[in-house]
Design a protein that fits this description.
The protein is built from 4 helices and 5 strands; from the N terminus they run H-E-E-H-E-H-E-E-H. The protein is α+β, with helices and mostly antiparallel strands. A 5-stranded mixed beta sheet has the order 2-1-3-4-5. The model has no long low-confidence stretch (mean pLDDT 93).
Length: 139
């Protein structure tokens, strides 16, 4: 964990990315868990792709905010990803789930992850080193 570091975007960039993730949470569709999550994924060219969790009664059919943002970036033709901010409920940091960690790792193993709650400070992690040091890889 590298909570004291802002990552490649600097402190102002980190704060802006976290604020975007917090702001987009209002669009989440979370009727089953009540746990709204927002994500803001920063590309190397400065574009930011937003995503929210979209739950479904058929649980596997739902989508996490991080993978929704990743899908938007890939759809736009972006592959150089720099950082993601994830914001969930409460004050504690909301880190990506295992499925999201793996999906993000496929395209950006060196991604900086800013995990935040609805309020309070964000904690910064390195995806490959801190959150998924033993990522799955096909032979």
């Amino acid at each position: 964990m590298s909570g004291a570091q802002a990552g490649p975007v600097g402190e102002a960039g980190r704060a802006a990315l976290v604020e975007q993730a917090r702001s987009v949470r209002v669009n989440a569709h979370a009727p089953h868990s009540g746990f709204a999550v927002g994500a803001a994924l920063l590309a190397g060219d400065g574009q930011v792709f937003l995503g929210v969790n979209v739950e479904n009664a058929a649980s596997p059919a739902g989508m996490c905010a991080e993978r929704a943002a990743l899908a938007a970036a890939v759809t736009a033709g972006t592959s150089a990803l720099v950082a993601i901010a994830v914001a969930g409920e409460g004050a504690g940091p909301c880190v990506p789930c295992g499925m999201c960690r793996q999906a993000l790792h496929e395209l950006a193993p060196d991604l900086t992850v800013h995990a935040a709650g609805a309020v309070g400070p964000a904690v910064t992690y390195h995806l490959g080193r801190d959150l998924l040091p033993h990522a799955f890889r096909l032979p």
